[in-house]
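Input (Acyltransferase):
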Amino acid sequence: MESKNTAKDRIWFAQLLRGLACLVVVYSHLAWGYWLEHENLKLANLVVPLDPLPEMPPHIDFHMRHSINHMTPGGLGVSTFFLISGFVIPISLEKYRTRGFLLARWFRIFPVFWTTLSINCLALYWYWSVNGNGFPYNLSTILANAGLVAPQLQLRWVDSVSWTLALEVQFYILCAAMYSLGLFRTWKGVLSTAGVLSLLSFSIGSYYNSAFILGNVQYWPLCILGNDLCYLIYMLVGTCFYRFYKQEWSLRTSVLMTLAILGLWYLPTSNHLMQAQHFPATRRTYIASYFCFGFFYLFRGYIPYVRPLNFLANISYPLYLVHPVIGYMILTTALRQGLTAYPAIAIAFISTFLLAVAIHYLVEERFNQLGKRLAERLRPRPTNSKISETETHVVFCQGTIQTPEEKQPLRMS
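Output:
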């Protein structure tokens, strides 16, 4: 039997997936990647390595045997985020139009991101001061991170998950451009856009891989662009689901389009040496995420509303940003104090969870509301005051899900 909320809000499945995807990513970093890539964390200036590393938790062996080189839990969570973004961003864009959409997105993304970046930098400064080393980043690196352009300038990310945020911003710009050019609603427009991106990405991989091998830094931004385009193509798969959800495309068109765009995404992934060691597992993981998303979409009307998962989804954006840096430091400190793996992981998760809750209420909600009010001023006034029964507003990763059917809409932020 359908729940009351589910019956009124069929996009609850996307909110649910958002919360679950965030949990998977946090698990991937704190309970999986920390143990398997411990030395890399030192190279990234995140922690002082433990020598010897305490005994790995038992579940790591399962991943060693079944996940490595097959699928990665972090990739599953991230790819789900990408599909959700492709699904819900068109709703916000078509509500606010280009200028209002970009303004609202700025207020959704950057205030929280800059807050967490500041917290991470302060934590790293304290951590490395206590451990006898100086702060590992200069002002140029911090500013490049704040602008989400660190790789293009051959600089490190302070927070290892920021690369996905940079892709989100690129996708917003892509969607706004498609909307302005009239390419956003028709299957021909979406397919042609994906085709151009695929050809461009493949060409960059073909002609500039040698630059990557030889370390020719003048071509590095192009190599980064070619790599990023692969992910932007994948996000358009979620847009195809949305067009079917809105009944703008037939089932046949939607299925063929998702498969075609997956093919256009798959083609250039084999042609970029930057991610050559990761793409085999990435392909399997992203394809699995496609089927997982499709399963949740298919049964969206039967998924019950779960308040704790709704709250988790609401704080998923700040939690996603604070858990790697802060979580790694807390986890390392707890292990140094003699705690075993699972209590240390629990302390790291609870600490970052509480920090994310504080950021959500003190920063995210306030700037979200401000961005919505400003975007509303730029929104064209409808000629018909009656709201369409299918009009919905959904904001991915930092926002709300509302349906006009409810006098008191379901809060998602």
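The mean pLDDT is 84.
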